[in-house]
Amino acid sequence: MAAHKVVLLGCRGVGKSCLGIRAMDGPFQPNWFYEAIEPRIIKVPCLNSIVEMLVQDVPTSSDYNAAHPMHAVSYLDSCVGLVCYAVDDTLSLKWAGDFWVPQFVHFCPNASLILVGTKSVLERTVPMAEVREVAERIKAVHVLECSSKTNEGIELVLEFVAKEMLTRKHVHEGQRRFKGSCVVV
Ligand SMILES: Nc1nc2c(ncn2[C@@H]2O[C@H](COP(=O)(O)OP(=O)(O)OP(=O)(O)O)[C@@H](O)[C@H]2O)c(=O)[nH]1
Ligand SMILES: [Mg+2]
């Protein structure tokens, strides 16, 4: 069976590539901006099986709309979108909900969305109420946090992605995802 695809979405600098590198068992590089890392298949143990997932990073650009076709290629055949915002950047949450998700959903209407607060060991400035509001609006199936710097929560994020890939119910058109309970972990 082909690997399920998970895509890392979000604003410039929120830490998508660092999260992808951690998922691939790589080291954290401070002050290092990665445009987009090469897609790679990783294996994640979950529910007594091994889920093979293709981790796909999405390159950002100062001109998001001009990058549209490039994004479309990255999104192709995605099963899960990891919607990233940084916990110390309120604007990144707003853009996640207002720009990245609508664009992704346009190309992958049946994919599940998981909202992830990155850089979780930094001081939080994004109010949890706003996180919940966005999570509900985008119908995220999970709301998680992680830090690529300390590796905290990375395994859990991968586990939730794997679980979602294994247990996703078939959804009808117009009902993009089944609405799971949204718990902040
Ligand atoms: N403190 C802290 N810094 C982080 C963390 N994750 C990423 N960073 C830093 O944030 C910056 C951006 O990380 P990237 O992974 O390149 O961000 P990106 O979302 O891929 O950015 P673009 O590809 O430009 O869109 C880098 O300087 C990282 O070192 C984290 O968990 N904690
Ligand atoms: Mg990057």
Tell me, briefly, the overall form: globular
What is bound: which ligands?
guanosine-5'-triphosphate, magnesium ion
Which architecture per CATH?
A: 3-Layer(aba) Sandwich
Q: Mean pLDDT across all residues, rounded?
A: 88
CATH top level class name: Alpha Beta
Spell out the helices and strands N to C: EHEEHEHEHEH
CATH homologous superfamily assignment: P-loop containing nucleotide triphosphate hydrolases
Kindly report the CATH topology. Answer: Rossmann fold
Q: Low-confidence segments, ≥5 residues, pLDDT <50?
A: 170-175, 178-185
What is the rounded distance between the termini?
30 Å
Instruction: Output the structural class.
Output: alpha/beta
GO molecular function: GTP binding; GTPase activity
Pfam families: Ras
Keywords: GTP-binding, Nucleotide-binding
InterPro entries: P-loop_NTPase, Small_GTPase, Small_GTPase_Rho
Task: Give an overview of the whole structure.
It holds the Pfam family Ras. Keywords: GTP-binding, Nucleotide-binding. GO terms for molecular function: GTP binding; GTPase activity. InterPro entries: P-loop_NTPase, Small_GTPase, Small_GTPase_Rho. The protein has 185 residues and is an alpha/beta fold. Helix content is 32%, strand content 22%. The chain has helices at residues 16-23, 68-75, 90-107, 128-138, 154-167, and strands at residues 4-10, 40-46, 49-57, 80-86, 112-118, 142-145. It has a six-stranded mixed sheet, sandwiched between helices. Strand 5 (112-118), helix 4 and strand 6 form a beta-alpha-beta unit. Mean pLDDT is 88; it is low at 170-175 and 178-185. Bound molecules: guanosine-5'-triphosphate (GTP) and magnesium ion.
